[in-house]
Design brief:
This protein has one domain. The protein is mainly β and 159 residues long. The strands form 2 sheets. It has a 6-stranded mixed β-sheet with strand order 3-2-1-8-7-9, with no helix packed on it. Strands 4-5-6 form a 3-stranded antiparallel β-sheet, with no helix packed on it. The radius of gyration is 16 Å and the shape is globular. The protein is built from 1 helix and 9 strands. This is Immunity protein 50.
């Protein structure tokens, strides 16, 4: 990894069954962040699927940033972070936020959601993607459980 960052992607996916009542409350209680296994630069991904009872599943740790989803530009101990919306699903986001600038020791939470129609039956799936990204060394492994330095909320009302 060429930039000193700790990245945690949290992806939650559900269907119409979790859109109302008790099931929606259960889905809304799913975490947006988790304690880190260590504070070294790395990329961690956690997936929570409705059809697996939203049980968090950690993917294998990586040291490579997915350049299709995330642009990082470092200059003079300031990191510019831009989350790309590469998903071809509703809603389309024509006006995106500017890159977020972080100083060392700061961290960002960036969230966006989508809805898409399944070809096999015409029903909808929904997804919330949360990027938690810290610039510089992380000593507190529970960092992402607290309040971020910067928060970009691109969540839209999904029908």
């Amino acid at each position: 990894m060429d930039v000193d960052v700790v990245v945690q992607w949290v992806r939650t996916e559900w269907t119409k069954a979790s859109r109302g009542g008790a099931e929606a409350a259960r889905r809304n209680a799913v975490p947006e962040a988790f304690a880190l296994p260590h504070g070294r630069p790395a990329v961690h991904e956690v997936i929570q699927l409705e059809w697996c009872d939203f049980e968090p599943v950690w993917s294998k740790e990586s040291d490579s940033i997915d350049r299709l989803r995330l642009s990082l530009l470092e200059s003079d101990d300031v990191l510019a972070v831009q989350l790309q919306d590469t998903m071809h699903a509703a809603p389309r986001r024509w006006n995106r936020p500017s890159p977020v600038r972080l100083a060392r020791g700061e961290w960002l939470r960036w969230q966006l959601n989508h809805r898409w129609q399944r070809p096999r039956d015409g029903a909808y799936n929904y997804e919330l993607t949360t990027l938690n990204l810290a610039y510089g060394p992380v000593s507190d492994l529970k960092l992402f459980l607290g309040k971020p330095t910067r928060h970009v909320d691109e969540r839209a009302r999904l029908r």
